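Practice problem: tRNA uridine(34) hydroxylase
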Amino acid sequence: MQILSGAARGGSVKTDSPPLPIRIAALYQFARFDDPAAIKPDLLACMEDAGVRGTLLLAREGINGTIAGSDESIETILAHIRTLPGCSAIEVKESRAATTPFHRTKVRVKKEIVTMGQPDLDPLAGVGTYVPPEDWNALISDPDTIVIDTRNDYEVQIGTFQGAIDPETSSFREFPAWFRARLAELEAKGRSPRIAMFCTGGIRCEKSTAFARAEGVEEVYHLKGGILNYLEHVPEEASLWRGECFVFDERVSVGHGLKPGDHSLCRACRRPLSKADMAHENYVRGVSCHRCYDERSEEQRTRYAERHRQEMLAGIRGRGHIGRKVDSEADG
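Answer key — structure tokens:
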């Protein structure tokens, strides 16, 4: 397998447009926090004082989240995070927006910063080999490479890499069982697989590649920085990405150059919707879409309709609806 380098690599996507005012920072760091609950108060106070919105998750295994604010306020939060144990070199993936994609400021303490249901797994000890975006095309174009999209089904639905396997999982907890079954199939055929995994921002692959190695797979690769890093640095004309990338904020999806995509969000089931989806007879803004219509009762749809009405009234009055929940757990 040949990895491209130098002039063969794609250059960064550039734009001459003036920067948009809101800076969005997606970040994670696997670290060892003895007492994550003790970290929460100062971190939350720092975010509130700086006027930063978004969600940060803390666990004994580290920190994960996406935040938005002015350049100065984001720098303030990043400086604070870099003082935490094991976080001095934390990597941050950034983009910009005209308005903040979040409506709340939250710090949550969890059992895992990305939930896989494998509490004994230590990504710090066994992660796969990182592959920079510029070298990813060569790796996944090799016919001997098995390319796996580790994201959930509703994310894969709107975009993925050419030739990637979709595990069709509804949550990351389902991935270990799916992987073990798939690995058993390969081993039955006498194959020693070379596996390349990817996810939105890289965090899920920290766990999925460590899991694959713990299951005995020796050659495991991981797209460094995830799809967002790839879309930022690989030009569209050289890209093997097809569609858009789902993100866990009000942008819903992004494309090459991290430009906002064309998808909206069903407020009932949180699934991304294309323009064609919104033309379906079962789509009612704020209430239902064709995927969740049969999953919800009439009573639930009535509640959703009232919630949507309250949100619209709050918007007209120029203030956020206090019951509104728009941002999901950070899950890169």
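Discussion: Residues 1-15, 320-330 have pLDDT under 50 and may be disordered. Students who identified this feature from the tokens alone can consider the problem solved.
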